[in-house]
Amino acid sequence: MYELQEWKVVHLNEYNVDNPNHVVITFDGPYKNIYEYAVPILEKFNYPYELFMTYEHLGSDNKFDVGEPVTQFMTLEECKELINRGARLQWHTLTHKNLNTINNPTELENEIVVPEDVKNIDKNGFDWFAYPHGDYNNNVVKEVKKYYDGALSCIQGDDKNRYKLNRITVLEENSFKKNKISVIIPSYNYGHFLIEAIESVLNQTILPDEIIIADDCSTDNTGEISEIYSTKYPDLIKYFRNEKNLGIVDNFNKAVSLSIGEYICILGADNRFQSDYIEKTRIHLDKNSQVSIVYTDFVLFGPNARNYYIDFPKEQQSGIKFDELFYISFPDYKPGKYPELLKNNFIHGSSLFRKECYSKVGGYKESQGPEDHNLFIRILFDDKSSAFHVGEPLLEYRQHSFDQANIKLSFQTQLEFYKKHYKEIIKKNKALKETIKLYKRQDLSSKLGNRLFPKKSLLRKLLNKVLQKIINT
Questions:
Q1: What is the dotted CATH code of the domain comprising 3-152?
Q2: Where are the domains of the chain?
Q3: Nearest C-alpha neighbor of 458 from the set 425, 411, 424, 398
C-alpha cells in the first residue's frame, strides 16, 4: 500500500489505459476478510477500490470455487456499508459459472446482466464486469459489451482492450516501487556506536532496498561488525572498506556512487532512526516530484546533548524529557526561505534526498561549513527544487564524549552483540561445543579465539571477554 503512493489510484471509470501512472485496486468476490482486514488499510491511505460481486453467494461461502480456500462472503448490508468507505460495487455474475460453458443465450444473459433492484444499491457502480475464472470467448465479450463500460480478466487479458483488461494477482513477493532507497552508514572508528545505527535501520516499518556501510579505513572493530551484518543479511547490507582514509566528502561521494537507490539517506554511525523514519519521509518524494529533500525534526541524546541544545535558537528548542532527551523543531521550508537557509542550517545531514538532484549539482564538495548544508543549498538554489519538513523528531542525534560512563554503555552494547553472534555460531557448528567444554576446563580462551577469528585481534579479545562473562554468569 505504501508503494502505491507513487502511483495515482483511481476508480475504473477514471482509468486511462494510456496513462502509465494509473492504478485500480480490485477484489473478485466480496469476501468477509476484505471487510475485516483490507478495508481499514485502504481507508488509512484513502484509496478507492472496486468490489466485484457474485450476488447469489452473499452471506454464504465460496465452496463452489474449486481450488480456493473456503471462506465467508460479506452480507449485502456489509457491501452497502462499504460504498461509503471507498468501494464501488461491480458485477462478477450471478452465480460465478464459467461463462464459456454456457450455450443457452438466456442463461448467459441472466449471469451477465445486473438485476435492476441490485443496480440501485450503488448508483455509481455496476459499470464494469469481471469474467469468472478470468475465462471468456468472443460470444461472452460480445454480450458483455452490451451492458458494461469495460471488463477485466486475470489470465488472458489485453492491456489495451477495455473489455479484456489484465490484472495483476498481488502476492507477497510483488513490488510496485518506482524508486529504491539506499541508506548509507559512513563509519570511521565508530564501531562502538555502529550496532545501534544498523539496528535502527533494520527495525524500520518500511525497509530500505539496501544498507551500505561505508568504512573509511577504520582501525577499530567497524569491519568485524560490518562483516557479521553483511553475512547475516547478504541481500540487504553491503560493506565497503576504503584502503586508505578518504575523509568525509570523498567517502560520502564514493558510497553514493556505489548505491542503487534513487533516494539516498546518510545516517551517521553514531546516530539512530526512529522506526518510522523511512515510512514518513519517502512518501513526500513519492507524491511530489518538486520535492528534492525531505527533512525532519530530531532529538538530541548523549552526554553532551544539553550543551548542544542550548546553542540552538530558542524557537527551535521544543522541550526536554527525562532530563536526557532534548527535542529540536525546525521551520518549514517555503519559497523565500532560501536566504534563511544560507544563514541557518535547519536541514540536517540525515535528510532523504533524490540522487538525481545530488548528481545534478556535483555531489558533496569541500566547503567552509558542513558538507550536507553546502549540498542542500546547491540543490535548493534551483527554483524547481523544494524541501519538505516532517514535523516529528524521527532522527536521534547523538552528542557523545569519551567519559567513563559513555565507554561502559558502548562496551555493553558491543558485548551483547558479540554474545548473540557467538550463540549463533554455537548453534550452527556443533564441533565448537566440544571446544567450549575444553575452554571451561583448561582456560583455552586464547586458543578458541584463534580458532574462530585468527586474523581479527580486537574481535578475539572481545570474544574472550564474552566467554568469560558467560562462564561467570
A1: 3.20.20.370
A2: 3-152, 181-398, 404-472
A3: 411
Per the structure block, which three cell numbers stand in for 14?
477514471
Q: Could you report the per-residue pLDDT of 78-108, keeping only the tens digit for each?
A: 999 999 999 999 999 999 999 999 999 999 9
Whole-angstrom CA distances from 330 to 111, 324, 388, 429 are 61, 20, 11, 51
**Model pLDDT for residues 308-363, shown as the tens digit of each residue:** 899 999 999 999 999 999 999 999 998 766 667 877 889 999 999 999 999 999 99
Residue 286 grid coordinates: 513519492
Q: Find cell 546553542 and name the residue.
A: 311
Strands (E), 244-337: 263-266, 272-273, 291-301, 317-321, 325-328
Do domains 3-152 and 181-398 share one topology? The answer is: no
Q: Per the confidence metrics, is the pTM higher than 0.85?
A: no
Which architecture does CATH list for 181-398? Alpha-Beta Complex (3.90)
Q: Which of 121, 21, 19, 141 is closest to 79 using CA atoms?
A: 121
Q: Which of 293, 299, 15 is nearest to 160 (CA)?
A: 15
Element (H, E) at 252: helix 248-257
From CA 276, how far away is CA 280, in angstroms rounded? Answer: 6
Would you state the cell numbers that stand for residue 247, as one nine-digit string? 575523509
Alpha carbon 250 to its chain centroid, in Å, reads 28
- Residue whose cell numbers read 525546525: 330
Contact between 463 and 452 under an 8 Å Cβ cutoff? The reply is yes
Q: Please provide the DSSP assignment of 1-52 as one string.
A: --GGGGSEE--GGG--TT-TTEE--EEES-BHHIIIIIHHHHHHHT--EEEE
Cα dihedral sign for 276, 289, 379, 250?
Answer: positive
